[in-house]
């Protein structure tokens, strides 16, 4: 089963012979991470009894590590398998608020959803407050919206002059930051390239600590701009995909995938679930079903009863 896993990021879970979920985790690369359980466990030797009980592997491939991190969190908050210890993971959920008002423009980290005043736009959520702070630091280097405020301190005014920006640049920089935070590919690529130039210039001047700091900011910018759809969707719905006799159902509640189920069902039985799936989720759910079908033991039969739910978490 490990050989059927892709090298993509994603979420995996292990089941025992009775179909019980033993453990759920996330991976930067599914194949290598899951395969590591059947090699040297290193400091994870306490998992040996669990590994010995695994008879089935299930997985959902994600479009980014950030998405996999959110999916793991959502599922663990809804249900904790026996061998998991931390509900929802260690990262802190945060938001970014982009203030375009003349008094205090700029993007800032926020911890909780509160009323958003006019002139402020909210983005996210994201996981990992430290990563978000680093991303905002990097964006300030290359898109210094804060230096376009109507009133600046002496030091800030000097920095604004050095950077060649002022109030006339406020709308442009706000639009560029909005494009980055909405994951516009061109805007993200341009900001990334500008940070790479800052890093390389620092390295060329032998400012290696600064170069290392900017490299961390580049990685953090990649983190917040990676594809992520398992948290932040609108409303409540289910998205279903079918492939090779396996129906995968992703249940979204309050904009977050909260449940991932899969079961054997005929194409006829799957049809009403597929037609009810939102169009913009069809490809995502079908990819999940294709991987699920590749991991199903070949001796399982196709169930005609579309109500026979199997494989819940």
Question: Which helices and strands occur, and which strands form pairs?
Answer:
Layout: E1 10-15, E2 21-27, H1 30-35, H2 48-53, E3 56-61, H3 65-78, E4 93-99, E5 106-110, E6 120-127, H4 129-142, H5 154-163, H6 170-181, H7 185-204, H8 208-225, E7 237-243, E8 246-253, E9 256-264, H9 267-275, H10 282-295
Antiparallel strand pairs: 1-2, 1-3, 4-5, 4-6, 7-8, 8-9
Helix pairs in contact: 4-7, 4-8, 6-7, 7-8
Keywords:
313 residues, alpha+beta, 3 domains, three-stranded antiparallel sheet, 9 strands
Please report the total strand number as a whole number: 9
Mean pLDDT: 91
Number of helices: 10
Question: Within the largest sheet, what's the order of strands?
Answer: 2-1-3
Task: Specify Rg, calculated over alpha carbons.
Answer: 23 Å
Order of helices and strands: EEHHEHEEEHHHHHEEEHH
Query: What proportion strand?
Result: 15-25%
The main β sheet shows up as: 3 strands, antiparallel
Query: Helices and strands: which structural class?
Result: alpha+beta
Question: How many separate domains?
Answer: 3
Shape: elongated
Helix content: 25-40%
C-alpha end-to-end distance: 20 Å
Indicate the low-confidence ranges by residue numbers: 301-313
């Amino acid at each position: 089963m490990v050989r059927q896993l892709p090298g993509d990021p994603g979420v995996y879970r292990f089941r025992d012979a009775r179909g019980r979920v033993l453990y759920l985790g996330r991976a930067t690369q599914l194949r290598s991470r899951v395969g590591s359980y059947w090699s040297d466990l290193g400091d994870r030797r306490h998992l040996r009894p669990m590994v010995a009980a695994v008879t089935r592997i299930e997985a959902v491939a994600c479009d980014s590590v950030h998405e996999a991190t959110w999916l793991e969190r959502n599922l663990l908050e809804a249900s904790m398998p026996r061998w998991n210890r931390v509900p929802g993971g260690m990262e802190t959920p945060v938001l970014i608020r982009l203030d375009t008002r003349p008094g205090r423009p700029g993007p800032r980290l926020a911890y909780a959803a509160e009323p958003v005043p006019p002139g402020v736009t909210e983005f996210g959520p994201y996981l990992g407050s430290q990563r978000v702070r680093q991303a905002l630091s990097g964006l300030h280097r290359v898109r210094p919206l804060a230096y376009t405020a109507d009133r600046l301190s002496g030091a800030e005014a000097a920095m604004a002059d050095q950077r060649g920006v002022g109030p006339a640049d406020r709308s442009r920089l706000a639009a560029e930051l909005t494009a980055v935070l909405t994951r516009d590919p061109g805007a993200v690529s341009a900001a990334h390239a500008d940070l790479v130039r800052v890093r390389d210039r620092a390295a060329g001047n032998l400012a290696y600590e600064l170069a290392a700091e900017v490299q961390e900011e580049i990685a953090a910018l990649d983190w917040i701009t990676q594809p992520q759809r398992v948290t932040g969707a609108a409303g409540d719905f289910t998205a279903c995909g079918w492939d090779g006799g396996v129906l995968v159902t992703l249940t979204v509640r309050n904009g977050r995938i909260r449940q991932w189920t899969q079961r054997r069902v005929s194409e006829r039985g799957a049809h009403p679930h597929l037609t009810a799936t939102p169009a913009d989720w069809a490809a995502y759910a079908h990819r999940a079903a294709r991987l699920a079908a590749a991991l199903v033991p070949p001796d399982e039969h196709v169930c005609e009863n579309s109500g026979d739910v199997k494989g819940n978490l």
